[in-house]
Amino acid sequence: MTVKKQTRAKCCCIMFVGVFMLNAQLNAMAQTTSSAAANATNNLKSQQQAPTEVNAQTEKSIAPVPAPASAPASAPTNSAILREAFDAIQTFRDREDPMEAIANGRPGDAFRISDHSAAAIARRDKETIGLLKALQSVPREGLSDAETLDLDLVIRDLSLDVQAQKFLGHLLVIGPLGGPQQSIAQMCDRMPFERATDLQAHAARLEQVPKQLADDLALLQDGLRQHITPAKVILQGIDAQFAAVIAGKLDTLRAPFLREYPDMTPEMRAQLLERADKAIEKILAAMVAMRDFIRDTYVPQCRDDIACAALPNGQEWYAFRLKQQTTTTLSPQDIHAIGLAEVARIHAEMLVVIRKTDWFSKDAALAALSDDEVFARFTAYLRGDARFYFQSAEELLRGYRDICKQIDAHLPELFGKLPRLTYGVREIPRFMAPSQTTAYYQQGSIDSGNPGWFYANTFALNQRPKYEMIPLALHEAVPGHHLQIALTQELPQRHSLRRDMGFTAFVEGWALYAERLGMDMKLFDDPYNDFGRLLYEMWRSCRLVVDTGMHALGWSRDQAVTFMRANTALSELNIDREVDRYISWPGQACAYKLGELEIRRLRASAEKELANTFNVRAFHDALLCDGALPLDVLSARMTKWIAARKSEMPIQKPGQSTPLNVPAAVSPPDARPAQKNIQIPAQTKSIL
Questions:
Q1: Mutual angle of helices 238-247 and 266-293, in 10-degree steps
Q2: Which pLDDT belongs to residue 222?
Q3: Helix (H, G, I), strand (E, B) or coil at 425
Q4: What's the pLDDT at 108?
Q5: Which residue among 168, 174, 217, 304 is least crowded, i.e. fewest CB within 10 A of its CB?
Q6: What b/e readout covers 188-226, taking b as 16+ CB neighbours within 10 angstroms?
């Protein structure tokens, strides 16, 4: 799972304000272009926000420099119009979420935090609608393929934002994976602290947090009135999260003031520390009030039904969530069927691997058992034997770091281009670990000097088996999330707006596919590790069944837990946390397997069409070179790439063979598990 520094389960709004000022003196040869540009300009002008001090600064920063009076200005090209539109979008987004802008190395108002008030949300919604209309009128003549792709993707993204507005998802402020009880304690994580000005900005931000908490509380109250709340069952650990943060007195927010800075005088430090202490005292008081409200008022009134369908417009909302997260038009029933087929396929592969283990070979009586009995006994053995678990958090983290270094050495075999940004391994903060998933990735930024971080959960070590560690490292770090996201951040000639864009089916589908690349690296020669790989693939396949089962097909939480327990070797704690995650984040978990299936289909197609000229490094570079894409767009672009590569293949004479162009560590195509074994309903094959 990958997260940006926003509330983990809640998407940030995409917002815009800006003005295009086109010169009136257009030459006759550019008349057609200038007319279209003027239409786009007028549309964008109409969305301009009411003047504020911040708006005035924004407009000033994006206004073009007037042309000299003596030199008539030519009409702007459509590429320039598009660039200016994207600049304006980025400016507005950075203004509305200044901490995210700074974390990504862009200039931002470091003295502000995001406005969570209902009025601000309504304003952003209105401006998003205006932005969509304006972008749809940007003239396309003369745009490059890359520019057209970027424009289409931004319009697509904004269209989904506009469609989402009717569901009032912003009222779902808290959950096990996110909320102020997590985000506030981590405010410093991605902020630069290099000089006195950074501390002044930090103190100013802290002073605004009590107001932000009051706005969040108002949203929770509005959610109760409109019957838009999380399911009650997933909020059982929220009180403990608040308690841990309050008990820690938010010392993480005070820590930057205790460091040494070259331009910091003792007097300045004392003044800023006094401001910070007063602000933190008010923040803690506001968090106590919110904790009490959530425990005593909010949770008792939350819904008992776990299904998204139980919310207002719930069935439509869930269908929208599936479309948004998977970038497909598959129905819940389609996705459920794909999941069941994948579960059956992987279960058969698991039984083959189980019979290769020393556990099976040591007991001849096991050969007489049914497949289901063998699977049940083996998973019980895995969950209960101490050999599969570390005794300390330090050992677990060291194990992950060792695995990551081992993987690093194999990357040049599989990729022609690697990112410059480094990454590290950290433990999930202990105050939030009990209710968090096994791991997640937090992206970094070359521009802001932040590495990427693979966060591993060290809570309940007897629930963190060693055989899961290799696929998890492949997924969260490299060649999964870190490699893909860092490469996207470093794309040349692409606007930051486009580089920051993520489509869950691509991002998570790639990370699941990356787990499979451990086979090319020979990391799964040990049958227990190979079972761990299959376990993780099974886990994502079960998600298709469980997510759709609970949100669309009437499944209870107990049914979901029972299905996960019967088909995976995940620990009991992991299963509970995962099921609660699917309840709180409808549709998101379905993106992983659907994205991975599409990437595997494309690779199988490339291997077949290109035969012995297939180069896995070139394939991966082509797949990642445009950043995250919707699956339909990815399919079209990679199909075109395969056709272009095929047209370059030398014509073979009878009896002549083409040299194999595959890195030594990569298995030839016929040694791979065949994609054709995957059973997919006929109506979905064109998508997957």
A1: 150
A2: 98
A3: strand
A4: 76
A5: 304
A6: eebbbeeebebbbbbbbbbbbbbebbebbbebbeebeee
Structure tokens of 104? 């990504």
Tokens at residue 652, please? 């073979």
Arithmetic mean of pLDDT over the chain: 86
With 0.70 as the threshold, say if the pTM is over it.
yes
Confidence tier at 522 by pLDDT (50, 70, 90): very high
pLDDT level of residue 579 (50, 70, 90 thresholds): very high
Cα dihedral: 290, 293, 296, 298 (round 10): -110
Instruction: Count other C-beta atoms under 10 Å from residue 357's C-beta.
Output: 17
Bridge partner residues of 178 (DSSP): 175
Q: Which of 126, 566, 161 is nearest to 340 (CA)?
A: 566
Average pLDDT for 626-642:
97
Q: For the sheet containing 452-456, what is the strand order?
A: 2-3, 439-442, 452-456, 423-427
The whole-angstrom separation of Cα 259 and Cα 93 is 31
Q: Could you give the 3-state DSSP secondary structure of residue 465? A: coil
Residue 651: enclosing H or E segment and its boundaries? none
Helices 590-610 and 616-624, interaxial angle, to 10°?
130
Long-range contacts of 280-286 (CB under 8 A, 24+ apart): 280/206, 280/249, 280/250, 280/253, 280/254, 282/209, 282/210, 283/184, 283/206, 283/209, 283/210, 283/213, 283/250, 283/253, 284/246, 284/249, 284/250, 285/210, 286/209, 286/210, 286/213, 286/214
pLDDT in tens, 419-457: 999 999 999 999 889 888 899 999 999 888 899 999 999
What are the Cα distances from residue 568, in Å, to 297, 338, 563, 584, 594?
Answer: 37, 17, 8, 21, 19
Cis peptide leading into 76, omega within 30 of 0? Answer: no
With a pLDDT cut of 70, the percent of the chain lying above it is: 84
CB atoms within 10 A of CB 536: 25
